[in-house]
Design brief:
The complex is a heterodimer of chains A (381) and B (190). Chain A has 381 residues and is an alpha/beta fold. Chain A folds into two domains: 212 residues, P-loop containing nucleotide triphosphate hydrolases (Rossmann fold), CATH 3.40.50.300; 130 residues, HUPs (Rossmann fold), CATH 3.40.50. Helices cover 43% and strands 17% of the residues of chain A. Chain A has 15 helices and 13 strands. A six-stranded parallel beta sheet of chain A has the order 3-2-6-7-1-8, sandwiched between helices. In chain A, 41% of the residues are buried. By secondary structure, chain B is an alpha/beta fold. Chain B is 40% helix and 19% strand. In chain B, strand 3, helix 3 and strand 4 form a beta-alpha-beta unit. Classes of the chains: A alpha/beta (381), B alpha/beta (190). The interface between A and B is large, with 44 and 57 residues.
Chain lengths: 381, 190
């Protein structure tokens, strides 16, 4: 049996799901058994079975590190025993609920910090996480579901995981499991069905979980390619990204908000992220009107959940290509260009220059509806 | 007049024409975004829901045409107390953005310039207050609507009359006129 190498950092594999009850812990235990059967030293560092018989049954046959008992305000609390895990030095440790907040008085405030310590000891870790615990998604999911989750983890923790596995289940199947008492005890089922476990909540969370994992995979692939081949430009790598990402080019004038709204709607339909970019000519002073438009653009981006970038450059296509490469952009949306003047007429139009600089990235020109003939705009309700 | 002078004048005229073709924008038209807009009056048209009263929109358009003003439709998003004030609000935006688009399309088709805004606050009134602090405008048009989904309450209107340093046009409720502009009015791909 191999002993963990203290000089090597352990590998982290996270099972992520849209909500409790999709089978993350079950799958983690299943993999633990498979590793044990393959001859590896596997222990359960911490398991939260929530009284689920299936989960408890699956844990049988795996060694368990007993929990540490702590006293806090006349209450005895059980937490994972980090010291015992490190001292035991298994090859693989199963640690449930990565986002858990430890009891006051623990060595670390959060369980993911304990997991970091385990990894630093050269021990591999399998762990579980619900998508709403990710810090960056917390507000978004709270707005979708109406339920705020207090225990969150920084996205970087998931970003550093060596493997992220999505445990997917349809919302209907999860609700069936809930009603059958496979997720919560009988007395909690009605409350769960009336609060968090609604079909619309679960559908939204499932979509978020799927996108999150797709983005993680895309980001890892881009990073790997860059490390492997420094000559390869980001712009060339971006079109192969798994998730879609839109980039809207704006200028601070009133009509540009339309472009942002259209880009946001497209991003919603594609399930894509949205970035907004204004390339400011060097030394350009803004008029009062432009200042106001810029402020309104920033406010719009913030409300929509888009990220706004302001870059100073006199090479517009170059600045766009640089950001698009960095962000893994797959679509660029631009408004109608100003009519060219002077020698500008001899220059290649912006859409063509963008396409030349970013092969494989779609460039979409958003029409200005105010220029449409009146008859085409029609009357609506 | 010698042939040389005629040729020289013809060449100069041709060069002048070519230069004018290069330097002037097509059709001699000044792009809309280059017109000076700072001099225009601004009419704020705030809303919170999925629709606005057609009467208030039509009033805004009439006034904008008469005064050569810009309409500023403003979607007032409300942030629940459980969320940070700076949070993104995609669910509310899914209702507000199409209505902004519908208003902008309709106003633009009537030749009225539009400069949209989005306000964010703990309530519609809070969002409006923040918007008022940040923006310059000359007039606000609101509808005293009995339907709470339409947005501002009577209390909000009273607050506006007390606090807002601009002309306020409150349109009387017209139960017989139920026409509204809703997100269904968006034309084309949006």
């Amino acid at each position: 049996m191999a002993v963990p190498d203290e000089h090597r950092r352990g590998r982290l594999k996270v099972f992520i799901g849209m909500a409790a009850g999709v089978g993350k812990t079950y799958r983690m235990l299943l993999e633990g058994h498979a590793e044990q059967e393959a001859g590896h030293d596997v222990v359960i560092g911490l398991l939260e079975s929530h009284g689920r018989a299936e989960t408890a049954g699956m844990a049988e046959g795996l060694a368990v590190i007993p929990r540490r008992r702590m006293r806090y305000r006349d209450t005895v609390i059980e937490e994972m025993d980090l010291d015992a895990i490190v001292a035991r030095r298994p090859e693989l440790c199963l640690i449930d609920e990565l986002a858990h907040a430890n009891a006051p008085g623990s060595e670390h405030a959060k369980r993911y910090e304990d997991v970091e310590a385990v990894l630093e000891s050269g021990i591999d870790v399998l762990s579980t996480l619900n998508v709403q615990h990710l810090e960056s998604l917390n507000d978004h999911i709270t707005e979708l579901s109406g339920v705020r989750v207090r225990e969150t983890i920084p996205d970087a923790i998931l970003g550093r995981a060596d493997e992220v596995v999505l445990i997917d289940l349809t919302p209907e199947a999860l609700l069936d499991r809930l009603r059958a008492g496979k997720v919560y005890p009988a007395e909690r089922i009605d409350a769960a069905l009336n609060n968090f476990f609604k079909i619309e909540n679960l559908s939204a969370l499932r979509e978020v979980a799927l996108r999150q994992v797709a983005e993680e995979v895309g980001a890892k692939r881009l990073t790997t390619e860059l490390i492997g081949s420094r000559e390869e430009s980001l712009a060339a790598a971006a079109p192969q990204a798994v998730g879609e990402r839109l980039l809207a080019l704006v200028e601070p004038y009133p009509g540009t908000q339309r472009l942002v709204r259209r880009a946001w709607r497209s991003a919603q339909r594609l399930g894509a992220g949205l970035d907004i970019l204004w390339v400011r000519p060097p030394g350009k002073d803004l008029s009062e009107q432009e200042e106001r438009s810029l402020m309104a653009l920033r406010q719009l981006a913030s409300v929509l959940g888009a990220r706004m970038f302001e870059e100073e450059s006199d090479d517009l296509p170059g600045a766009v290509a640089e950001l698009a490469g960095r962000r893994g952009t797959t679509y660029v949306l631009i408004g109608r260009s100003r009519p060219p003047r002077g020698l500008g007429r001899l220059r290649t139009p912006l859409p063509q220059r963008l396409m030349q600089r970013m092969p494989g990235v779609d460039v979409r020109i958003v029409a200005d509806r105010s220029l449409r003939p009146n008859g085409e705009n029609g009357e609506g309700s | 007049m010698s042939v040389g002078v005629i040729v020289a004048v013809a060449c100069a005229s041709a060069l002048l024409g070519i230069a004018a073709g290069y330097w002037l924008p097509p059709h001699g038209r000044v792009p809309a975004r280059e017109r000076r807009e700072g001099e225009n009056r601004r009419i704020l048209l705030p809303f919170t829901g999925e629709e606005i009263s057609r009467r208030s929109f039509e009033a805004a358009v009439r006034l904008a045409k008469a005064e050569d003003a810009i309409i500023m439709p403003a979607f007032l998003a409300q942030v629940p107390m459980s969320l940070p004030l700076e949070t993104a609000l995609p669910v509310q935006c899914a209702r507000g953005m199409p209505l902004l688009e519908a208003i902008e399309q309709r106003a633009s088709s009537q030749g009225v310039p539009v400069d949209s805004r989005v306000g964010r606050g703990r309530s519609a009134r809070d969002a409006l207050r923040k918007l008022i602090e940040q923006e310059h405008f000359d007039r606000i048009i609101v509808s005293a609507d009995e339907d709470p989904r339409a947005g501002l309450s009577y209390e909000d209107l009273r607050w506006m009359l007390d606090r807002v340093p601009a002309e306020i046009l409150i349109l009387r409720p017209a139960p017989q006129d139920t026409r509204r502009i809703s997100i269904g009015a968006v034309k084309g791909h949006f």
